[in-house]
Specification:
Radius of gyration: 25 Å
Strand content: 15-25%
Shape: elongated
Oligomer: single chain
Length: about 400
């Protein structure tokens, strides 16, 4: 008889739930009426961005810390991370009186370094690439006799993340599907162990960015080809964990890939519809439902909003890009005669039709137009794409040539 590769049991997850009870928020699982109407599925969102450090990573980190020996606790722990795992280990290590060292890549944004230090950790900056950072953490662990807290390839961490699955099915026992963002596989491994024990018929499906398909390529024996960066940086892991990979191959039903465009669209939907702040990885499950609507139509779908730690500048940019995508902010290139009153006429037409001009740049010299013609770049705000179309029609009816600087043709 072949031994199962699953090294973590449901009993381990139950034990983890007892160990972290009271120190980890039991975040809500809420039905989204609006997203359900838009997608055709019955959407339930697990808001893990409401944890103290705004990520599910606290669960696994705390369970690992709780399972250390007294000697290990006294000596301290070390982790390699530039994000959520670092803060989870730092916060709970400090709270429990366990010395924590976090090794971060040298290009880690200062705000993340500061937050980790504020949680009580000693931060060591090392390595341009995360692989170098992780290798250095292993070296320090041996030199200083520290216990390594791996972000995903660890039984205690996997069990801790699995507590999320228990909570989801306690709140909604008849879920048909659970959608989980996947990087190194710790979260989906734990959830799959818990969910499949409680309901063997439930589907557990992972979601990955197309640019970092670590689990998808492992299951399908595909080669990895680097494709730059991703909005879902929290799941931008090149290689799935050995332990998590074995669990996923046995218990995970499918892995879906989503594009950067779909990740961005889903993130903006969660911001504007649910009024909640997700990071890119947290938006991956909704991106999957938007990308494969027929796969989930009519089903009760639980999706894990895994975290909310997103750079404020990136968030501001995404919100503005979302307004552009919806046709609410647009830049027009308008050709006009170089005569007094022409620009005023344009402004009047836009204003009369309900548009709000944000910015105007007028060009006479650097243009290939005839000498008596010029052009203006006009950035305007409109109610929606229909209002924009009304303005375009009004300008064109008045004899102006108008080009729209957006992806869709209007």
């Amino acid at each position: 008889m072949t031994q199962s590769p699953v090294s973590v049991t449901f009993q381990d997850v139950q034990k983890a739930a007892q160990a972290i009870d009271g120190a980890i928020a039991k975040t809500p699982l809420n039905k989204s009426i609006t997203l359900s109407k838009l997608t055709g599925a019955e959407i339930y969102i697990k808001f893990e961005n409401l944890q103290f450090t705004a990520s599910f990573k606290e669960r696994g980190a705390l369970n690992k810390l709780m399972n250390l020996t007294e000697v290990q606790k006294k000596n301290g722990v070390i982790a390699a991370s530039a994000g959520n795992h670092a803060q989870g280990v730092a916060y709970h290590g400090s709270r429990l009186g366990i010395p924590t060292t976090i090794v971060m890549p040298v290009n880690t944004p200062f705000v993340k370094v500061r937050q980790t230090e504020e949680h009580g950790a000693t931060v060591v900056m090392h390595g341009e690439r995360f692989d170098d950072t992780a290798e250095y953490a292993l070296q320090l662990a041996e030199e200083r006799n520290l216990t390594l807290v791996h972000p995903f390839n660890d039984e205690d961490v996997i069990a801790g993340q699995g507590t999320l699955g228990i909570e989801m099915l306690e709140a909604c026992p008849d879920l048909d599907v659970i959608l989980v963002p996947v990087g190194g596989g710790g979260l989906i491994s734990g959830i799959a162990i818990a969910a499949k024990h409680i309901n063997p018929d439930i589907e557990v499906i992972g979601v990955q960015a197309e640019r970092f398909p670590s689990l998808h390529r492992a299951i399908n024996n595909n080669e990895y080809i680097a494709q730059g960066s991703t909005l879902a940086e929290g799941i931008a892991v090149k290689t799935i964990g050995e332990k998590t990979g074995a669990i996923c191959k046995e218990l995970v039903d499918d892995i879906l890939l989503v594009t950067e465009d779909e990740l961005e669209k889903a993130l903006c939907m969660l911001l504007t519809i649910e009024k909640t702040v997700p990071e890119g990885a947290g938006a991956a499950p909704l991106a999957a439902v938007n990308t494969y609507p027929e796969r989930f139509k009519g089903k009760k779908v639980g999706m894990v909003l895994s975290g909310g730690n997103i750079d404020p500048r990136l968030l501001a940019s995404l919100l503005m890009r979302g307004l552009v995508r919806e046709g609410r902010i647009t830049r027009l290139r308008i050709v006009l005669m170089d005569v007094p009153g022409a620009l005023a006429q344009i402004s009047r037409i836009i204003g009369d039709l309900g548009g709000n001009i944000i910015d105007v740049s007028h060009h006479r010299l650097f243009t290939e137009l005839p000498a008596k013609e010029t052009y203006s770049n006009v950035t305007l705000e409109t109610r929606d794409s229909e209002n924009l179309q009304d303005i375009l029609n009004g300008l064109r009816a008045a004899g102006f040539t108008v080009h729209v600087n957006r992806a869709s043709d209007l």
